[in-house]
């Protein structure tokens, strides 16, 4: 039986991944940890503890004591926030990953690691459309630099020590269950909250900024699918491209207006526009589809209905589109 540790379980990915993994492996076998309090669902459904990935001694003790076999290391400073605290972001993002990789190298019970990369590894010199799996990666943001370095460390630990680390280059991830946490693609979550709150949104990106996006349920499914794939089928030891769908803020606004006609939007690009301008517009994820049968279920229309209904319910409103 797998014994799974999730580091960063209170975040956007972790909060939903924890729930799904507990459904598969049993509540008692999925250990949720973070530096902040998670949702009541996570706290009440299985083991939960405060844990700092930078505290090596406590991390090692935790893994040994609970006989952990898989680690999902999700804790990180995201793109927008990382630009405000570059050295701190580098320290947190890199030291945390290296602590987990070193631990897996030394503790035999730990068989598999998941660590999220991002489309932030790409930069201005990367092909913008249908970005291939193997291409130029010259990131210009702190977050992107840490993700590219992390990819290289994951591959190094696999080749040098046999540490089975797996990764996905996530596009922008969208969910109503946790509010935005400082990412450049967070407009695609904020816009739904503001559509329900006040029927207006001021977007921090230009209206025609196309970026790869994915609804969270597809991202969670892809993550678990990758981790359950037999080792000999994994051909990418840096990080797999994950495409999803591509859209711009104006596309989301038009979809919302179909359901809330009075919704309005204006655009005041901030420092995150310069970050978005370095990222791809669309992603080629054919290697993931070949290696572990990646499939995407949620398109923009379906996502819009899910988000509007979900956010409305959080605010005690009844909408059914």
SSE layout:
Elements: E1 4-7, H1 12-25, E2 30-34, H2 40-45, E3 48-50, H3 56-65, E4 70-73, H4 79-84, H5 86-106, E5 112-114, E6 117-118, H6 142-161, E7 165-166, E8 168-170, E9 172-174, H7 187-197, E10 200-203, E11 211-215, H8 216-228, E12 240-241, E13 245-247, H9 249-259, E14 264-267, H10 271-276, H11 286-292, H12 300-314
Parallel strand pairs: 1-2, 1-4, 2-3, 4-5, 5-7, 6-8, 8-12, 9-11, 10-14
Antiparallel strand pairs: 11-13
Helix pairs in contact: 1-8, 5-6, 7-9, 7-12, 9-12
Protein architecture, described:
This protein is α/β, with parallel strands linked by helices. The chain folds into 2 domains: 4-171 and 215-241, NAD(P)-binding Rossmann-like Domain (Rossmann fold, 3-Layer(aba) Sandwich); 173-213 and 244-281 and 298-314, UDP-galactose 4-epimerase, domain 1. It is 44% helix and 15% strand. It contains 12 helices and 14 strands. It has helices at 12-25, 40-45, 56-65, 79-84, 86-106, 142-161, 187-197, 216-228, 249-259, 271-276, 286-292, 300-314, and strands at 4-7, 30-34, 48-50, 70-73, 112-114, 117-118, 165-166, 168-170, 172-174, 200-203, 211-215, 240-241, 245-247, 264-267. The strands form 4 sheets. The chain has a 6-stranded parallel beta sheet, sandwiched between helices. Helix 1 (12-25) links the parallel strand 1 (4-7) and strand 2. It is globular, with a radius of gyration of 19 Å. It starts with a strand and ends in a 7-residue tail after the last helix. The relative contact order is 0.13.
